[in-house]
Specification:
Distance between the termini: 62 Å
Helix content: 55-70%
C-alpha cells in the first residue's frame, strides 16, 4: 500500500505536468494514506528520501492545489505526523545522511517534536558539518536554514563556527548569534561589533544591527552600542539600521522554520522606556550630526506611543 501511494506521487512528471484538480486530489489522498498507515509506511518513505528524487509541486501548473510544495517536504512532515520509534529512528538516519540545508532544518524540527532534546548532538553535527562545507564552497540555496537550525537547537558550542562564518554569511551568522538561548552568543557578537574588519563589510552593520535588536533584552548589548557611539565607531551607513532596530524594525531569517529569530517588540510601557533610554544614551555620546537628528526623531516617535499606551490601559 505504501509503495503504491509513493509510486503515484513519484509518477508526477517534474518536467512540466499540468496538475488538474482531480490529479491534485489524488496526490493529496496518497499523502494522507501514507500518514494513516503509520509505522508500516516508514520504510518506504525512508527509502524514497534516501534517494535524490524530488517532485517540486510548486513549479508545476496547478501545483498549488497540492498540500505541500514538494514531495520530499511532504514526506519529512509525514514522518513527524506518524511519530513513534520507527519514524524517529528513520528521521535520525536521514539527518545523518543529507547535506541539504533545508532538509537538515526540517528533520531537526521533526526530531525536536518527536523526541525533544534527545538528539541535539546529531542535529548540531549535521548542521555544523554542512556549514563547514559552505565556508569552502559556493553554496547558496537554503543556506539560511543551517543558521536557523544552529540558533534553534544550539548553545555555546556553536558560537565559534557561527563567528567564523560572519565574513561569508553576514546577517545569517550574526542573527543566529543574537538569537542563541540565554544570550550565549552575545559576547561573540560584541567582539564582532568591535572588530574593524567586520565594520568594513557592507554597511558596517552586520553585527551592529542584530546587537541593537537585542539591546533591550541584554544590557551588555545596549552598553556596547553606547560605547561604540562614544568612540565614533558606528559607521554613518550603519546608523539608520541601528536606529531602526532600536525602534522595533527587526530583520530575521527568510524561512523562519523555527519561528522568529528574536522576539519582536511587545510595546509595553516598560519596554518603550527601555528603548528610549538607549536612544537617549546614544544621543548623549555621539557627535554624528545626522545620527543625532535621526535619534531625536526616533525618540519622539517612541515617546508618542506612551500616552496611547497609558490611555488604553490606565
Amino acid at each position: 500500500m505504501a509503495e503504491q501511494a509513493l509510486a503515484l506521487l513519484a509518477g508526477v512528471d517534474p518536467a512540466g505536468e499540468v496538475l488538474t484538480a482531480p490529479r491534485a486530489a489524488a496526490l493529496n489522498a496518497a499523502l494522507r494514506q501514507l500518514r494513516e498507515q503509520g509505522a508500516v509506511a516508514v520504510p518506504a518513505i525512508e527509502k524514497f528520501l534516501e534517494s535524490d528524487r524530488e517532485i517540486n509541486f510548486d513549479s508545476l501548473v496547478g501545483g498549488n492545489q497540492v498540500d505541500y510544495g514538494s514531495l520530499r517536504l511532504a514526506l519529512i512532515d509525514g514522518l513527524g505526523q506518524i511519530g513513534g520509534p520507527a519514524a524517529t529512528a528513520a528521521t535520525v538516519r536521514l539527518l545523518g545522511n543529507t547535506v541539504d540545508p533545508l532538509e537538515i532544518a526540517l528533520l531537526t524540527r521533526e526530531l525536536e517534536q518527536l523526541a525533544p532534546q534527545q538528539y541535539r548532538a546529531a542535529e548540531l553535527a549535521a548542521a555544523q558539518d554542512v556549514l563547514q562545507q559552505t565556508l569552502t564552497g559556493n553554496w547558496g540555496a537554503n543556506s539560511s536554514a543551517l543558521f536557523e537550525t544552529l540558533q534553534a537547537v544550539g548553545d555555546a558550542r556553536v558560537v565559534p563556527v557561527l563567528k567564523d562564518a560572519v565574513k561569508q554569511w553576514n546577517y545569517y551568522a550574526t542573527l543566529a548569534l543574537a538569537g542563541l538561548p540565554d544570550g550565549a552568543g552575545i559576547p561573540a557578537l560584541i567582539d564582532l561589533v568591535q572588530d574593524p574588519s567586520i565594520r568594513d563589510l557592507g554597511k558596517g552593520d552586520y553585527a551592529l544591527r542584530p546587537l541593537a535588536q537585542v539591546a533591550v533584552q541584554y544590557p551588555a548589548a545596549a552598553a556596547t552600542l553606547v560605547d561604540q557611539a562614544r568612540l565614533n565607531q558606528i559607521p554613518d551607513s550603519a546608523w539608520p539600521t541601528v536606529i531602526a532596530a532600536l525602534t522595533g524594525h527587526y530583520i530575521s531569517f527568510g524561512n523562519q522554520i523555527f519561528g522568529e529569530t528574536v522576539s519582536g517588540p511587545v510595546w509595553s510601557e516598560e519596554e518603550i522606556r527601555q528603548r528610549l533610554r538607549v536612544l537617549t544614551d546614544l544621543l548623549t555620546v555621539t557627535a554624528n550630526v545626522e545620527a543625532r537628528q535621526s535619534l531625536q526623531s526616533a525618540a519622539a516617535a517612541l515617546t508618542a506611543r506612551l500616552p496611547h499606551y497609558v490611555s488604553r490601559n490606565g
